[in-house]
Design brief:
Blueprint (H helix, E strand, L loop, with lengths): L27 E3 L6 E6 L7 E5 H21 L5 H29 L1 E4 L2 E4 H28 L2
Antiparallel strand pairs: 1-2, 2-3, 4-5
Helix pairs in contact: 1-2, 2-3
This protein binds zinc ion.
Length: 150
């Protein structure tokens, strides 16, 4: 995606790959096709170049240091099992919310992404339904875990 002026630029979605009708006005916006939240960030390739990132993927990546840090801290003895269980419950809750958000967007739009491949119609809705169900289950387990330890 080039040129921040917005004139004649049609950025493509990081999730579904479809072109947008115009350059986004805000750094965070929703794809008009798949309804996933997208983040506009400047590219390192040059001034005036931008990247669109899928916020669902960004949130999952941001959770990795928390999970990895909690696991390492537990295994080297910096936190006890009780605190490690809190980290796991919190992670389950956040990942569950992300999956519910992604799954319900897929159910609504009929678009789902499996690695690099974008599915549509019935297979996408089936995967989105499964994703939503696992997300709800993850939210319940994480939420109950956090409540039980508070
Ligand atoms: Zn999209």
């Amino acid at each position: 995606m080039r040129n921040g002026s917005g004139l004649g630029v049609k950025p493509s979605c990081a999730f579904c790959g479809r072109a947008h009708s115009r350059f986004p006005r805000f750094p965070i916006f929703q794809c008009e096709h798949c309804e996933r939240p997208l983040l506009v960030v400047p590219s390192v390739k040059g001034v005036g170049e931008f990247l669109l990132l899928n916020m669902v993927d960004v949130a999952k990546v941001l959770m990795m240091p928390i999970v990895l840090g909690g696991t390492i801290a537990f295994f080297i003895g910096r936190i006890d099992a009780y605190d490690f269980a809190r980290v796991v419950a919190f992670s389950l809750l956040v990942w569950g919310v992300i999956d519910v958000f992604d799954g319900t967007a897929g159910l609504k739009t009929g678009l789902d992404k499996d690695g690099r491949y974008v599915r549509n119609s019935l297979p996408a809705k089936q995967r989105s339904l499964i994703k939503t169900a696992f997300g709800i289950a993850s939210c319940l387990v994480g939420g109950i875990g956090l409540l039980a330890m508070s």
